[in-house]
Amino acid sequence: MSANSDISNADLTATTDDRFDQPNRRGRPGRLRPDDSAVITRRITALAVGLGLFMAVGKFVLWGETGSVGVLASLVHSMLDMFGAIASFVAVRFASREPNPEYRFGFGKAESFSAVFQVCLIVVGAFHLLQEVIGHVGHTHAVSQSGPAIMVLMFFIALTLWLIIAQSWAIRATGSIAVRGDRAHYIADLLANIFVIIGIALATYTSLKWADAVVGGLMAIWLLFTAVQIARLAWGQLMDRELNADERRSIERLAMADNHVRAVTELRTRAAGPHLHIQMRLDLDETLSLAEAHEIILGTERRIMAAFPAADILIHPHPAGCGHAHGNSRFHTSKA
Length: 336
Known about the structure:
Elements: H1 3-19, H2 34-66, H3 69-95, H4 110-136, H5 146-174, H6 177-205, H7 211-238, H8 245-255, E1 261-272, E2 275-284, H9 290-307, E3 311-319
Parallel strand pairs: 2-3
Antiparallel strand pairs: 1-2
Helix pairs in contact: 1-9, 2-3, 2-5, 3-4, 3-6, 3-7, 4-6, 4-7, 5-6, 6-7
Protein name: Cation transporter
Pfam families: Cation_efflux, ZT_dimer
Domain Cation efflux protein transmembrane: 48-236
């Protein structure tokens, strides 16, 4: 059987298998064409900016009417949401730009820098809230206009929940780290509003007048926890962390779908915003001609690109059985 016929059969098998792998394709980097990913991330970040501004203004008015520390905590959180959403709004547009001669790997890591900026905002906001809480301890006061405040906050909860659902869909489609950071903000904001309602109710309708300040303190702690979660996501991309084991096995399976491929070695992967960079070595039969080896490499690229349309792929053919390792030994991944 010729190399070309083997490639065609392998491509067909990989495509058929991939149809049954649809649930695993969601929320992973490189699984969507960059242009399609850009359309989704641009729309969802624009929506997040608009809702963030609306809720920040609404909570500022509400804080002026109630004087609640819990509402102030939620207001600070919404301001952070808005600035973080603006950072994501800019980052996803910059990350979708095409590579140029100076930046051959593209601009995808702009999303990670956006996440770092969000972490800084969250930490600053958390310590500001802790300062406010400490200032109010021992100086408790009843919350005014508590009934209308609770109604307004419930409306904001509904808006935030709707946005989180939309962001979750966008993440499932694109795997965007910038949108993940935004969603973490708004999930925290959703919980913040719930805690604030509880704090206002306890401070107004029970003898627990200190509950409002306690809610503010809990929100400050929650903000710091959120910062750690987003920082871990950003760190992984900025430091070129490998894709998870399932994704790497998927890439290896696609590469091995051709019978002429004896082994896949030195596989390296890294995500950068909407893009994915993959490089590997394929061990091939040493009797194959250069043209046949080239066709096998092209078939492998097509199979991987079908599953990872945003992938940039570099494959090095290598004669099977040759023990020579190429490149700097410091970066060999045989121990991985």
